[in-house]
Write a sequence for this structure.
């Protein structure tokens, strides 16, 4: 029987709580330790995030630490699951890899491309795996859409429209653009990353956006330009009172609409059928996939370092476009 990998999680805020709940049913790994500078967070076993309640994490056998140094000194683990604020991702990913640990890191990969490049370089030098937890790549609804695009089953993709909007998170660091990057980097990046994953790097982007919450771009609309490709738009916001996201793909022969946990297929204006995508969520799936890669000594390809680094480059081009009012080339 293959041994279970031992995971340590650092950053026990809302996303840290959510990650912790995803370990209970994992076949190839177990959560053995959590780390946060605030001991009060260990007393709260669930948290509210934009997806709703994180669920209750069973921490009865999970050791608790107040610093990375203490964790590293006292715990044996195979990889570090990083759920820290955005501006700390690169620092702790690099530290962990240099300390001999594989790294699963929450998105965004880093605050800028330079830091993302450093993370990739350290992974190569240390030969430790680094994967960014871009969860849409592992959600069954989005995987179904990508398979439809890759197979050409419904013909050429003509148009893709995505929205991801809600209120701003309450934690203070989100409201500081130097830490979070604003809604464009923290929230909207999900859709930019999926567009990159499914279609590739656009030739150019044009973004209209405003700042209201963080000092960064917190409400925006982007058009992604692909030569001889589909019309692609994405909207993101931290300036709404209600959370919601939509994805609609118009192909030559059908329109696919994500309505989790289903994908609805519309043909000739009628709801023709529904594809059931229920089961484990993207967060559970990304952890399972990363552990499988470690055990098989196979670098992650579904969310490769280079691909998620490219998503950072694209979204920062969107930020530049919003700030200048100009179309920005990515070629």
């Amino acid at each position: 029987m293959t041994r279970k990998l031992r995971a340590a999680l650092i950053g026990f805020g809302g996303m840290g709580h959510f990650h912790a709940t995803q370990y209970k049913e994992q076949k190839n790994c177990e959560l053995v330790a959590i780390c946060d500078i605030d001991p009060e967070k260990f007393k709260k076993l669930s948290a509210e995030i934009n997806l709703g309640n994180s669920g209750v994490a069973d921490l009865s056998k999970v050791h608790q630490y107040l610093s990375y140094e203490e964790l590293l000194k006292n715990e044996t683990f195979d990889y570090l699951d990083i759920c820290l604020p955005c501006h700390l991702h690169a620092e702790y990913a690099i530290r962990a890899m240099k300390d001999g640990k594989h790294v699963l890191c929450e998105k965004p990969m880093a605050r800028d491309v330079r830091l993302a490049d450093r993370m990739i370089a350290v992974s190569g030098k240390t030969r430790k795996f680094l994967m960014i937890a871009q969860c849409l790549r592992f959600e069954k609804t989005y995987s179904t859409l990508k398979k439809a695009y890759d197979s050409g089953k419904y013909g050429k993709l003509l148009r893709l429209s995505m929205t991801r909007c809600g209120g701003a998170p309450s934690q203070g660091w989100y409201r500081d653009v130097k830490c979070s990057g604003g809604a464009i980097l923290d929230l909207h990046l999900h859709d930019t990353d999926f567009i990159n994953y499914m279609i590739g790097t656009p030739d150019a982007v044009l973004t209209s956006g405003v700042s209201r919450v963080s000092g960064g771009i917190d409400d925006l609309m982007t058009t992604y330009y692909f030569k001889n490709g589909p019309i692609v738009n994405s909207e993101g916001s931290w300036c709404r009172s209600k959370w919601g996201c939509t994805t609609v793909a118009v192909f030559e022969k059908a329109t696919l609409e994500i309505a989790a946990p289903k994908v609805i297929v519309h043909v000739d204006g009628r709801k023709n059928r529904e594809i059931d995508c229920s089961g484990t969520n993207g967060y559970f799936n990304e952890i399972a996939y990363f552990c499988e890669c470690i055990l098989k000594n196979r670098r992650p390809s579904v969310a490769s370092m280079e691909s998620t680094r490219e998503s950072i480059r694209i979204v920062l081009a969107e930020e530049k476009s919003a700030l200048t009012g100009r179309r920005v080339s990515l070629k």
